[in-house]
Amino acid sequence: MESNEIRSRFLKFFEARGHKIIPSSSLVPENDPSVLFTTAGMQQFKSYYTQEKNAEKDFGTKNVVSIQKCVRTVDIDEVGDDTHLTFFEMLGNFSFGGYWKKEAIQCAYEFITKELKLTIDYVSVFEGDEKTPADNESRMIWQKIDPKLVIKNHNRSDNFWGPTGEEGPCGPTTEIYINDVEIWNIVFNEFYKTKEGKYEQLKIKGVDTGMGFERLLVQVQKKNNVYKTDLFNNEKTREERVIADHIKTSLFIISDGVVPSNTGRGYVLRRLIRRAVRFSKESLEKIVERNKKIYAGVYNLDDKGEIKKEEKKFRETLERGLKEFEKGIDPFILATTYGFPVELTLELAKEKGIKINLENFNKKMAEHQKLSQTSSAGMFKGGLANHNEKTIKLHTAHHLLLAGLQAVVDKNIKQKGSNITEERLRMDFLCDHKLTDEEKKKVEDFVNNKIKSGLDVICREMPLKEAEKIGAEMEFGTKYPDVVSVYFIEDKNGNQISKEFCGGPHVKNTSELGHFKIQKEEAVSAGVRRIKAVLL
Ligand SMILES: [Zn+2]
């Protein structure tokens, strides 16, 4: 089934069930300077949930359906693997005080199994905790629909949504899994969390669902990665994939009115195009045209020549930088005045056997960046952006987890990506099998044992070469400067449990962490597993 057909089936399916079809909103959120880009389908409907706007008045119904364009750049370093993308579409149906759990679950089940003829692996429901009860209603609905269906209990970090701030609407979720991959997330806005931390029943309840289109396509078209679906061109190497992804995203962003610049959205766009240029020896024009064809009849895409213009400018920068480099110009000046990437300076220097004093460069760069750092530059990449006590603890636990996986499961396990919120840590890693319950238990024991031992966490600055020599963990595909900081977790005798390239911050001693628990272990794609874990 082709992507166009799935899109139209989705919309028609819900239209036939009393939903009004609403077009995707712009990638540039209206009246919301707090976010750079639209990242979810519900964003344009926020004020219908809070009743500031009236859906019946605006749409003639309380139920709507949409396919939303979304851009997320937090996982940009992961682009090139089988799943991560910076542009994606989100299929969603929404109800603002119309139907409730029974109808939402019934519709999702029918669409997946009857329209798309996919087999559900299992579903998950919220297991309940001291704050809000288990979602037995959803469990019973699923059971009634299909008594043989596997229903898993998941905890708050997985199956409870919101609130986005200190207070606000929130509620349990139920998720559909196909081949161990989460396909559809259905959120039931059931409670209002007050400032005092109380969960009160909402008078007007809401349903908000989201299904990543590219992920769904992988399942429907029976492929093992997104680049083999009809939204891509079977890109195989990391370079080809980064170019395809970044140029697609750039084309969509420009079509919604953004132009390359040095601040905010324009800066993200500029970085995307320049990153694609660096990976590509050929002109990017072909890729722009290919994407226009892929989405013809679905979205109106026009880059108004901006990509070509930015590409030309950046290629000139690269060329000019090259000439200056050959004259022996200081790499700091090359980078700041000519915009010449330091990685290129390093590559060229290596080719020509020139030694560059990078310690000096990094120092100057650090001072320079302190002066010129903009909020948008910070927003370009995720990482441990949120430096509060909870995320810092989870970050240290993250390092112990990697060490534990290597000690218990396979010493060759490599990290592929990570994400830390206040509530949980998430780690993607390369591993050829699903962890057994015994392995999970052993990894937990390993981490908890290290927490109990009260090990010191120490940061040491060292030359990149030396850090590589001692085998410090680095993230695949990341470029590091010449002098790096390495975080060690070690006992009193100097035995190292963990050593990772890392910008920190971390706790001083592992005894501060509490109790470590793995909440979930699942597949992200072939050969890549994901663990979500918490500290209790
Ligand atoms: Zn780290």
Radius of gyration: 25 Å
Helix content: 25-40%
Number of helices: 18
The CATH homologous superfamily name of the largest domain equals Bira Bifunctional Protein, Domain 2
Straight-line distance between termini: 45 Å
The distinct bound ligands, ions and cofactors come out as:
zinc ion
Structural class by sheet pairing and helices: alpha+beta
CATH class of the largest domain: Alpha Beta
Given as residue ranges, the uncertain stretches (5+ residues, pLDDT < 50) are: 372-383
> Major sheet: size, sense and barrel closure?
9 strands, mixed
The CATH architecture of the largest domain can be given as 2-Layer Sandwich
User: What does the average pLDDT come to?
Assistant: 89
What is the name of the CATH topology of the largest domain? BirA Bifunctional Protein, domain 2
Structure, explained:
The protein is α+β, with helices and mostly antiparallel strands and 536 residues long. It has 3 domains: 3-228, 2-Layer Sandwich (BirA Bifunctional Protein, domain 2), CATH 3.30.930.10; 238-378, no CATH class; 389-535, Threonyl-trna Synthetase, Chain A, domain 2 (Threonyl-tRNA Synthetase, Chain A, domain 2). 38% of the residues lie in helices and 23% in strands. The protein has 18 helices and 16 strands. It has helices spanning 3-15, 46-49, 55-59, 101-115, 136-145, 156-159, 213-220, 238-255, 264-279, 285-294, 306-326, 331-338, 342-351, 358-372, 375-380, 389-408, 437-452, 464-469; strands at 20-21, 63-71, 87-96, 122-126, 151-154, 160-161, 168-178, 181-193, 199-212, 414-420, 425-430, 456-463, 483-490, 496-501, 516-525, 528-535. The strands form 3 sheets. Strands 1, 2, 3, 4, 5, 6, 7, 8 and 9 form a 9-stranded mixed β-sheet that branches. Helix 4 (101-115) packs parallel to helix 5 and helix 16 (389-408) crosses helix 17 (437-452). The relative contact order is 0.09. Mean pLDDT is 89; it is low at 372-383. Zinc ion binds next to helix 16.
